[in-house]
Design brief:
This protein is mainly beta. The protein has 2 domains: 135 residues; 195 residues, Chondroitinase Ac, Chain A, domain 3, CATH 2.60.220. The chain is 9% helix and 42% strand. It is built from 4 helices and 28 strands. The strands form 6 sheets. Strands 2, 3, 4, 6, 7, 8, 9, 11, 12, 15, 16 and 17 form a 12-stranded antiparallel β-sheet that branches. Strands 1, 20, 21, 25, 26 and 28 form a 6-stranded antiparallel β-sheet that branches. It has a 4-stranded mixed β-sheet with strand order 22-23-19-27, with no helix packed on it. The protein is globular, with a radius of gyration of 22 Å.
Length: 361
């Protein structure tokens, strides 16, 4: 196991501002502006979340006319073809003014980390062909689809020998209902969004994306707006699996009490696979030196090569370590594989560079 530690003294001070605790969907959706009752992250978690938000993938905006068929191309080279008349007001009428189309794409390990959108289902990693979100508005009012948007995406990772790629639904937001009374003391209810902890819960959708030999793209359709869709295939790993426990030497003890952002985090990037797994489970009742995270039980393939990224924000300072590793089998008489981390102080820019380096692993 080879440790790649990037360590330099912190030379940059970052001002802490109010952290946007909304998920990506909520930030794009003006109807989700009801404050959700949830635990508050600590100051270090806010500092880390602020950095991730500033360095993460950005929304791209396009102006179109609803009565015309139009194809827009993002800076990532992906094409979205909107049929004429496909965009409608919620009452079914056709928009008459210019339409703003907002598109967000999460495509690489760096994006997966900075957007808190790991590519895993029940802790098992998925080979990702990207995550996509589209919103359309007229004068600020959300529109709906009367016909699907055709999407052609550039294939940026290895192609598995299969005819179709499963589509997935998932988000960092869950919705719950509060029952109460309105201004006339009549029973009523309100549906409110809240950030889901822990993170994404990807569920397989009934449709698929198809490889297009003519264009060299992966093609699929979006039948709804304001909904994340993910193109993923199963990892296909076979053989024995283990539970990985990651021990942090620098750990923020407020991590179990901070939600949805956390001041300590652990990620695993499988070697040469466009995927990132986030370890959400916290080691409980740990003695000094053994605080940290563990994977789902018996989920990480023994012999899997990859890179861990351990991160902690503590007292306004960032600490991190990149660690290349091959997942070992549990020692005799145990049912887990331990990995110890030696986190070093890093600046904000150094941390972002370490996250970006996952794209090359």
């Amino acid at each position: 196991m080879k440790s790649l530690v990037r360590a330099l003294a912190l030379v940059t001070t970052i001002a802490v501002v109010s952290c946007n605790k909304q998920s990506t969907v909520e930030k794009l959706n003006p109807e989700s502006n009801i404050a959700a009752a949830e635990a508050q992250p600590n100051r270090d978690a806010q500092l880390l979340a602020q950095l991730f938000a500033s360095a993460g993938p950005k929304t791209q905006f396009f102006t179109v006319q609803g009565k015309e068929k139009v194809t827009v191309t993002t800076t990532n080279g992906n094409k979205y073809t909107i049929p004429a008349g496909a965009l409608r007001r919620k009452d079914g009428s056709a928009p008459t003014g210019p339409i703003s189309v907002a598109i967000r794409e999460v495509l690489s390990p760096k994006d997966f980390v900075l957007s808190n959108r790991p590519t895993a289902a029940a802790g098992a990693y998925l080979l990702s062909y990207g995550e996509y979100f589209v919103r359309a508005t007229e004068a600020g009012a959300d529109l709906v689809l009367a016909a699907p948007i055709a999407v052609q995406t550039v294939v940026r990772t290895q192609v598995r020998p299969q005819e179709k790629v499963p589509m997935w639904d998932g988000d960092t937001t869950v919705y719950y209902t509060i029952n109460g009374y309105n201004q006339l003391n009549q029973p009523t209810s309100v549906t409110q969004p809240a950030s889901q902890d822990p993170g994404i819960n990807w569920t397989q959708a009934p449709d698929y994306a198809l490889f297009n030999a003519t264009t060299g793209t992966l093609d699929f359709q979006l039948s709804q707006l304001l909904q994340w869709r993910n193109c993923d295939v199963f990892s296909g790993s076979t053989g024995p699996k283990t539970t990985v426990l990651g021990y942090f030497d620098v750990y923020n003890n407020d991590t179990p009490n901070s939600s949805p952002e956390q001041p300590s985090m652990l990620f695993f990037k499988p070697r040469n696979i466009n995927s990132v797994v986030k370890f959400f489970n916290i080691i409980l009742n740990a003695p000094a030196g053994f605080n940290g995270f563990l994977s789902y039980q018996s989920i990480i393939p023994v012999g899997q090569q990859g890179t861990f990224l351990a991160i902690t924000a503590l007292n306004g300072q960032f600490y991190a370590q990149l660690l290349d590793a091959t997942i070992a089998a549990p020692a005799s008489g145990t049912n887990y594989t331990p990995v110890s981390f030696n986190l070093q102080p890093v600046s904000a820019s150094q941390l972002v560079s370490m996250i970006a380096d996952l794209n090359n692993r």
